Amino acid sequence: TEKEATLAIIKPDGVLGNHTDAIKATILQSGFKISREKIIQLDKDSASSFYAEHSTKRFFDSLVKYVTSGPVLVMVLEKENAISDWRALIGPTDGSKAKITHPNSIRAMCGTDVEKNCIHGSDSPQSAQREISFFFDTSTSQWFALPLQSPIL
Ligand code: DAT
Ligand code: MG
C-alpha cells in the first residue's frame, strides 16, 4: 500500500485554546508523520477561496469569520490510508455531538459546536491534493520528503 498525504488545520480556537501540543501528540501516536507545517493568519479572501465549495451555504460568512479570527496551524500528514484515517481521528463535524458519539476523537477533545470544531481534514484524495497545494509548494515530485518548512511553537 502506498503512503498518502492529507491536509490538517488546527483552527483558531484550537491554537488559541492551547490544544496544539495535545493534538500533535495524538497525530504522532496514531502513526502519522507531520511532513510540513506552518502557522499562518488567513485573510478573508484566502479563507473564502479555501472553503469555496461552501460559498452558497447559510453558514459561509460565519465560517470565514471564524477561521480568520486568529492564527491557524496547517500541516501535511502522511501515512498509509492517511486521508480516511485522519477523518476518522478528527470525528464528526459537530464538536458537541462528537463528545457523545466519538469521545476519543479530536473534535470531542477541543471542538465546541458544528462551526467551532477546532480541526480540519481533507475529505477525499481530490480535496487532499487541492488543499495541500493551496498551502504548500508541491512543485517538486519529492515534496513529501522535504524537511519541515518552518519550526513551530
Ligand atoms: P467538515 O469540516 O467536517 O468536512 P464540512 O466540509 O461540511 O465539514 O463544513 C466545513 C466547515 O464548515 C465545518 O468544519 C464547520 C462549518 N460548518 C459545517 N456545517 C455547518 C453548519 N451547519 N453550521 C455552521 N457551520 C458549519
Ligand atoms: Mg469538509
TrEMBL record:
The keyword Mitochondrion does not apply. Residues 3-143 form the Nucleoside diphosphate kinase-like domain. Keywords: ATP-binding, Cell projection, Cytoplasm, Hydrolase, Kinase, Magnesium, Metal-binding, Nucleotide metabolism, Nucleotide-binding, Signal, Transferase. GO terms for molecular function: ATP binding; hydrolase activity; metal ion binding; nucleoside diphosphate kinase activity. It is found in: Cell projection, Cilium. Its main location: other. It is an enzyme of class 2 (transferase). The keyword Cell membrane does not apply. Coiled coil: none annotated. One of its GO terms (biological process) is UTP biosynthetic process. Its EC number is 2.7.4.6. Transmembrane segments: none annotated. The active site is at H120 (pros-phosphohistidine intermediate). ATP binds at K11, F59, R87, T93, R107, N117. It catalyses: a 2'-deoxyribonucleoside 5'-diphosphate + ATP = a 2'-deoxyribonucleoside 5'-triphosphate + ADP; a ribonucleoside 5'-diphosphate + ATP = a ribonucleoside 5'-triphosphate + ADP. Belongs to the NDK family. This is Nucleoside diphosphate kinase. It comes from Punica granatum. The lineage of its organism: Eukaryota, Viridiplantae, Streptophyta, Embryophyta, Tracheophyta.
